[in-house]
Write a structure and sequence with these properties.
oxidoreductase; Ferredoxin--nitrite reductase, chloroplastic; 4Fe-4S; alpha/beta; Sulfite Reductase Hemoprotein, domain 1; heme; 5-stranded mixed beta sheet; 120 residues
């Protein structure tokens, strides 16, 4: 997981990233078994200090709406690669409210990266 400093320390950021990223990754690691490492990059704004475009999953702070009201949100990118045959991630979804990220990321990890729910 990579994260920029986010709105807590940066005036450009449209979303809080660092604490959210750490909490989300912890929760998802408790819920899911992954067949391989998945690189998740969080960045608070289009300046992309967190390099969202090169992550397997990239999240960029962006406006969103929930229940008709403006809220903190993210664009979700998928498929970034580094190293040999690099490729920039493509937009998967935009305007995702921050409060919906856990469910969205769990679904993406299951459908796109082969994650399985851990037995409880």
């Amino acid at each position: 997981m990579v994260s920029c400093t986010g709105s807590q320390f940066c005036g450009f950021a449209l979303a809080e990233t660092k604490n959210r990223a750490m909490a989300l990754m912890e929760k998802l690691e408790q819920q899911l078994e992954l067949p391989r490492n998945v690189r998740v990059h969080f960045t608070g704004c289009p300046n992309s200090c967190g390099q969202a475009q090169v992550g397997d999953i990239g999240l960029i702070g962006a406006p969103a709406k929930k229940d008709g009201k403006a809220t903190e949100g993210f664009r979700i990118l998928l498929g970034g690669r580094i190293g040999e045959n690099p490729e920039l991630a493509k937009e998967f979804e935009k305007g995702v409210p921050a409060s919906d990220l856990e469910d969205k990321l769990r679904g993406i990890l299951i459908s796109e990266f082969g994650a399985k729910l851990k037995a409880t």
